[in-house]
């Protein structure tokens, strides 16, 4: 079947109201079943964590959500400003934990770290902070990775990918923007260029080499609608983009799965010891 | 026959039968107080849906004293449809519904079509039922189906031609589809199209009771429906939240619908069977084993020859 350029247009409009109804129930229901009342998440001032914070406040009440800002000394001051702006708007009280000392303590003993490794250290420091807050406050850690990032593997294993519940993991980045507008997230947060802010001037789209608009259209037609690579190229996506994206998805499958367990016995954890996580809840 | 029906759109707790018995008893009591005569619970309402390896642990023999009897004991004058994991005498496990009446289990339907694709994995854990039979009840003949069963048109067809006045479908339908569907959930739209179609083209009532709540991140969307034999939605449960929908069923509507549009009367079952037999034979013919010289012959001719040969064998008694 041939795809026309019309068929590979933008993603259909997101039903944001319905998404809010489902994701807020998801948060309250799964949190309660796990035996928690509170949630904790990192606030970066970016759109993803802003949306998750807004959903969590709607689902659990502002008193049950802990937003933690975790800047490193080179983080953009705008990130913290935006996080504060967001928190004020949704009535969330924030806490700040500067990760500079803990990160520098490690970095001082290591040399020649490139940006990627330094970025991994920062995001894993933040994971340590969040999980310690989790234990201290009896609060579950919320994830803020979107579907685009999860598919492309654009995240750090045991860093920003670590969480207990992720309400936005089935929404593409461009859909997060639609949801953010529905949730009245401040426009400056919605419209600023996406960045992990792991080093000065970092930009998601520069680093990835394509725009979210373009890759989301590609991912939607490839993953959700199951068009083949050949069909997508025939419909106007560049072959190099299709190849690069499909290869990224494949190469990063390990980040979407737990560690492989070497099977030895008749019944092994991860292979054939198959229980739901919500077992008995 | 007129009666009140309750669509018990509950959120079962996964793997906690005690809690679920309580939920059933509470709904039964509320329904009884409202003058309900028939109450319908969702698929696997006693256990929750995503059981996986919990399946054998949750299994019940409907003949043995069990939570089903406990619920039946609380049913008072109500008839009830309850979803459970059935353990058969040969230790197969079925995804079943029990029809409880006069405080006893009167009928069991075993899910025939176990979805095992995409997000579903039922065949890994359940045996498939192989009967589609109506049950005689205080309300007349009713037919029971479980979720995926009703997506196969043959099941409702079989029930309607056995005289079912209402098809009772217990569901655990996950909510999916949040793009480009106006305000409705994609799966809710599909379910409405399906139940209305099944009702209208079989001139039967259809009641579809879906559960709500989350299991491992999957939502069940509720939106239970009662559809009359003209295909009109007469009652609807809330989306995503627990609900006890109480509505009236009037089987005189079935009489009037069938008087107006006698689709069932005019159905040529014999023709359907002949064609199905042919289709069934044809689909098991293995083309790659055919003699290449005979390839030009139409398969139809071949079948006729075969069936004639069989007939003559039967006549002469040669085997």
Helices and strands, with pairings:
The complex is a heterodimer of chains A (281) and B (319).
Chain A: H1 16-33, E1 38-42, H2 47-60, E2 65-69, H3 77-90, E3 94-96, H4 100-107, H5 115-137, E4 139-141, H6 147-152, H7 173-182, H8 187-191, H9 204-208, H10 212-224, H11 229-234, H12 239-251
Parallel strand pairs in A: 1-2, 1-4, 2-3
Chain B: E1 2-9, H1 17-33, E2 38-40, H2 55-58, H3 67-73, E3 79-87, E4 93-101, E5 104-110, H4 122-125, E6 134-137, E7 140-146, H5 148-151, H6 153-161, E8 166-171, H7 186-202, E9 205-210, E10 212-215, E11 218-221, E12 225-227, E13 233-236, E14 243-250, H8 252-260, H9 263-266, H10 269-283, H11 299-316
Parallel strand pairs in B: 1-2, 2-3, 7-8, 8-9
Antiparallel strand pairs in B: 1-14, 3-4, 4-5, 6-7, 9-12, 10-11, 12-13
Structural notes for this entry:
The complex is a heterodimer of chains A (281) and B (319). Chain A has helices spanning 16-33, 47-60, 77-90, 100-107, 115-137, 147-152, 173-182, 187-191, 204-208, 212-224, 229-234, 239-251, and strands spanning 38-42, 65-69, 94-96, 139-141. Chain A contains 12 helices and 4 strands; from the N terminus they run αβαβαβααβααααααα. The N and C termini of chain A lie far apart (46 Å). Chain B has 319 residues and is α/β, with parallel strands linked by helices. Chain B is 34% helix and 26% strand. Chain B is built from 11 helices and 14 strands. Chain B has helices at residues 17-33, 55-58, 67-73, 122-125, 148-151, 153-161, 186-202, 252-260, 263-266, 269-283, 299-316, and strands spanning 2-9, 38-40, 79-87, 93-101, 104-110, 134-137, 140-146, 166-171, 205-210, 212-215, 218-221, 225-227, 233-236, 243-250. Chain B has a 6-stranded mixed sheet with strand order 5-4-3-2-1-14. A 6-stranded mixed sheet of chain B has the order 6-7-8-9-12-13. In chain B, a hairpin with a 5-residue loop joins strand 3 (79-87) and strand 4. Chain B is globular, with a radius of gyration of 22 Å. The A-B interface holds A 11-15, 17-19, 21-22, 25-26, 29-30, 33, 165, 175, 273-281 and B 13-16, 50-54, 175, 178-185, 213-217, 219, 239-240.
């Amino acid at each position: 079947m041939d795809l026309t350029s019309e068929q590979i247009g933008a993603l259909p409009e997101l039903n944001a109201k319905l998404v809010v109804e489902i994701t807020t129930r998801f948060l309250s229901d799964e949190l309660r079943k796990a035996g928690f009342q509170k949630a904790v998440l990192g606030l970066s001032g970016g759109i993803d964590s802003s949306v998750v914070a807004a959903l969590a406040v709607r689902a659990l009440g502002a008193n049950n959500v802990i937003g933690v800002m975790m800047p490193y000394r080179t983080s953009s001051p705008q990130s913290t400003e935006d996080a504060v702006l967001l928190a004020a708007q949704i009535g969330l009280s924030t806490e700040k934990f500067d990760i500079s000392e803990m990160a520098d303590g490690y970095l001082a003993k290591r040399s020649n770290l490139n940006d990627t490794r330094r970025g991994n250290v920062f995001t894993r420091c933040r994971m340590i902070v969040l999980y310690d807050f989790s234990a201290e406050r009896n609060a579950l850690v919320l994830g803020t990775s979107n579907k685009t990032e999860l598919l492309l593997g654009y995240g750090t294993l045991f860093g920003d990918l670590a969480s207990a519940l992720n309400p936005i993991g089935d929404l593409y980045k461009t859909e997060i923007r639609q949801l953010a507008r529905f949730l009245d997230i401040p426009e400056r947060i919605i419209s600023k260029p996406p960045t992990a802010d792991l080093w000065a001037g970092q930009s998601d789209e520069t680093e990835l080499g394509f725009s979210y608009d373009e890759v989301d259209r590609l991912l939607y037609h490839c993953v959700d609608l199951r068009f083949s690579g050949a069909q997508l190229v025939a419909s106007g996506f560049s072959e190099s983009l299709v190849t690069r994206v499909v290869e990224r998805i494949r190469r990063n499958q390990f980040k979407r799965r737990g560690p492989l367990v070497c099977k030895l016995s008749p019944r092994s954890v991860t292979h054939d010891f198959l229980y739901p996580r919500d077992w008995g809840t | 026959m007129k009666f009140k029906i309750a669509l018990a759109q509950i959120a079962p707790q996964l793997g906690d039968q005690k809690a679920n018995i309580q939920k059933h008893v509470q709904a039964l009591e509320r329904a009884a107080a409202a003058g309900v005569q028939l109450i319908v619970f969702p698929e696997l309402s006693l256990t929750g849906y995503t059981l996986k390896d919990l399946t054998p642990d949750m299994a019940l023999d409907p003949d043995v004293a069990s939570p089903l009897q406990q619920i039946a004991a609380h049913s008072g004058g109500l008839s009830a449809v309850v979803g459970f994991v059935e353990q058969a005498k040969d230790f197969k496990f079925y995804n079943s519904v029990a029809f409880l009446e006069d405080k006893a289990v009167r009928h069991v339907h075993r899910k025939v079509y176990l979805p095992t694709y995409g997000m579903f994995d039922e065949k890994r854990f359940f045996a498939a039922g192989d009967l589609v039979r109506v049950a005689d009840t205080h309300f007349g003949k009713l037919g029971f189906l479980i979720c995926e069963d009703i997506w196969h048109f043959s099941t409702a067809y079989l029930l309607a031609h056995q005289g079912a006045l209402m098809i009772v479908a217990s569901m655990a339908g996950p909510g999916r589809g949040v793009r480009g569907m106006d305000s409705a959930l994609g799966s809710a739209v599909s379910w409405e199209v399906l139940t209305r179609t099944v009702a209208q083209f079989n001139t039967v009532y259809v009641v579809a009771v879906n559960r709500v709540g989350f299991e491992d991140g999957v939502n069940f969307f509720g939106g239970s429906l009662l559809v009359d034999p003209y295909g009109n939605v007469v009652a609807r449960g809330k989306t995503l939240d627990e609900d006890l929908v109480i509505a009236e069923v009037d089987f005189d509507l079935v009489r009037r619908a069938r008087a107006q549009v006698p689709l069932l009367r005019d159905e040529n079952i014999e023709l359907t069977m002949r064609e199905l037999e042919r289709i069934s034979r044809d689909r098991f013919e293995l083309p790659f084993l055919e003699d290449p010289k005979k390839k030009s012959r139409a398969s139809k001719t071949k079948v006729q020859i075969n069936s004639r040969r069989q007939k003559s064998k039967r006549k002469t008694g040669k085997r």
